[in-house]
Description:
Blueprint: H1 2-7, H2 11-21, H3 26-39, H4 46-51, H5 55-65, H6 68-74, H7 83-96, H8 101-114, H9 118-131, H10 135-151, H11 156-169, H12 174-184, H13 189-203, H14 212-221, H15 225-233, H16 239-252
Amino acid sequence: YLGxxxxxxxxxxxxxxxxxxxxxxxLIATELRVELACDFGHAEVVEAVVAAGAAEALAARALAxxxxxxxxxxxxxxxxxxxxxxxxxxxxxxEATPSRRPSMLRELATLRRDAGRxxxxxxxxxxxxxxxxxxxxxxxxxxxxGELLLRRLEDRAAAAAxxxxxxxxxxxxxxxxxxxxxxYQGGDPERFSAMVERLGALAGPxxxxxxxxxxxxxxxxxxxxxxxxxxxxxxxxxxxxxVRRAELAGRLGLGG
Length: 256
């Protein structure tokens, strides 16, 4: 009888048969529902299969069969799947459904980051950013990418490029500015001073206070002696700073 139903592709009959045998043979009912979902495109049985604890088996078969509707129906239950199966599910949906590609890349980036696969997470975030049309949202993704590059992959140059990219998309991203101030300290004086000034413009003068000493160094290195002199005057007095300020005063033609 079951063979006849299969041959006839009688989906309602197969659904009814699974319901009838379930009390006495729940495994057979579940296997039949997996078949319905993957081979007959009847995704309505996914909930019952998941409830029976067979989400992993269903996902594996649906992935092999490229059963799009069943894969979509499995998305709300992705947390029930093994990490590898979940990743394969997100990839398959991203490929089969372009409209869902951004959300699937977001899921993949999080999954890979949480699994410690930081280089792959960075690549996924780059792919996602390329699909995002809103500059402010794209900037947030570049900041996330930059933080992974900096703190997990320890690639300071790539991290700085990611934060700069974020500011190119949205110049108000304070998080990117703060990161770049730290990254540029001790490096190119012009880049550092420009970023500290940007920090002050976005977050107010108090945000610049911790950076006054290195900013004075940067100003002096650029020949911006008046700014360096003024900053040194606001710092805690030390013998070294007093001598240095006197030297700057002399170079500026001041009395001291």
